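Hey L., structure's done. Input below.
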Amino acid sequence: MTEQTPAPEATKTEAAKKKTAWVRTAVDYGAPIAFAAAYFTTKDFQLATWVLVAASALALVVGYAVERRVALLPLFSGLMALVFGVLGLVFHSDVFVKIKVTVVNGALAAFMIGGVLTNRAPLKALMGEALHMSDAAWRTLTLRYGGYFAFAAIANEVVRLTQDTPTWVKFRIGLLPLAIVFSLTQTPFIMKHMAKPDDQKTPEPPDAGF
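Output:
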């Protein structure tokens, strides 16, 4: 039996997907990383906020330029970063940037959990084209993501209200690898409930880096 050589078109498509995946990761995580780097370099929260606003705007532009679209979740998070960042600059307060994490994750938690309680699966509407699972599996996955977003919102409020700014910035950056780990832990569940179990490609879990 001879091994089939992948068609050039398939190879190009796979390479393009890998390229856009790296760009999407940079879009999702670039702004908070740039913000933290600016803060710990200058110890100036206001200057770091300027960096956050600029990086968030750039991320949205780059994401659209590469994929010719901006996914709803990164778009929502990016716009919120711009809105709360600008408010922080206008009022010279760090509260707006800090509370943005609570607002975004809290809103997503309410959206996900509320959808499940009304017998819907909002995550399916956002990711249905990429993953094919039963409605029951979608509701379970949606509830898990809703629980994660609720945890992130509550944890952010606890840290914001009880810790100093350097500690909060470290916590904010710590949420990024935590989001990646959480998403990866959902991969076995997704693989188990995919409509095509013979498909050996590992599905990409929804992003939770907010």
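The CA atoms of residues 64 and 70 lie 5 Å apart. The longest helix spans residues 8-42.

-- N.
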